[in-house]
Amino acid sequence: MDKRVVFDFDIEFTNGGGIQGQDFRLDIEKHEISDKDLADYIVADLRLLMVGKVTILNKYYIEERHKRKSNSENTTKELLIDLSHTIENGLITYKGLPAPIICDYLSRENSKQFYEEGTQFQIGKIEMVTNTGTYLDCPFHRYEHGKDLSEIELAAFTDLDAIVIRIPYKNTLNITAQHLNGYEVRNRAVLIHTGWDAYWNTETYYENHPSLTRDAAEYLRDCEVKLVGIDSHNIDDTRGKSRPVHTILLGYEILIVEHLCNLSLLPDDGFSFSAIPPKFKGVGTFPVRAMAKIYKK
């Protein structure tokens, strides 16, 4: 037998007034539902606006056949996938660059002197280079007169139509234009899934990693992609002093995101990608909380 929830509700409107309901019955898919989820469902189902406080009262469950299709079957849900590594004290992202120092500026214990008894706060202090964790590169990183983070529009790194191109590192470490042929990449964020993130925070991660070649960067530039990301130590081959991929992409204002992870959890396409940094002036790269948004029925 199906599960249903029975409850009363009281809804207040921010512009005055309200509505109440008694002995309301709702189909549910699981054995129980939280008051918050129940309130959100009512507001959405009744298409209410200017809603303030919602109170759920006298809630209990019964076994009874569902009366209509579940709301979850009729609503498109967003699934968010975190594509960022965690930044912690002492983390080495790039050999030769200092690890971040993350500590208290004001500890909870020391804060007690400023507040009433039982009230404590912590204020953190972070010292780090901007190339730490999963980060975004913009033109200023490579070019003195290129746009810095404060000059990049939100549309350049937010909710971009995206695609994953899977090129396992076990097959090749040199990703060429030929590997990128046959994909719909124009005006999209192109995420290169190599699987190298499996070595994150190990000695293996820093050496002989997958990277793009010059002709791959030229191909992506000519296709006018919006952003290129990779789950590797660097989008360029770091064994030499040349950085053609950064030079080509950033010179064309195509943003780069390095040190991604969890690309294996994404579909090949049908999702959006975001990698949003703080709005710093005079900074060309900075850690981001990179994420994918997948729409599911």
From TrEMBL:
One of its GO terms (biological process) is L-tryptophan catabolic process to kynurenine. Keywords: Hydrolase. The keyword Transferase does not apply. Its EC number is 3.5.-.-. Coiled coil: none annotated. One of its GO terms (molecular function) is arylformamidase activity. It comes from the Bacteria. Pfam families: Cyclase. InterPro entries: KFase/CYL, KFase_sf. This is Cyclase family protein. The lineage of its organism: Bacteria, Pseudomonadati, Bacteroidota, Cytophagia, Cytophagales.
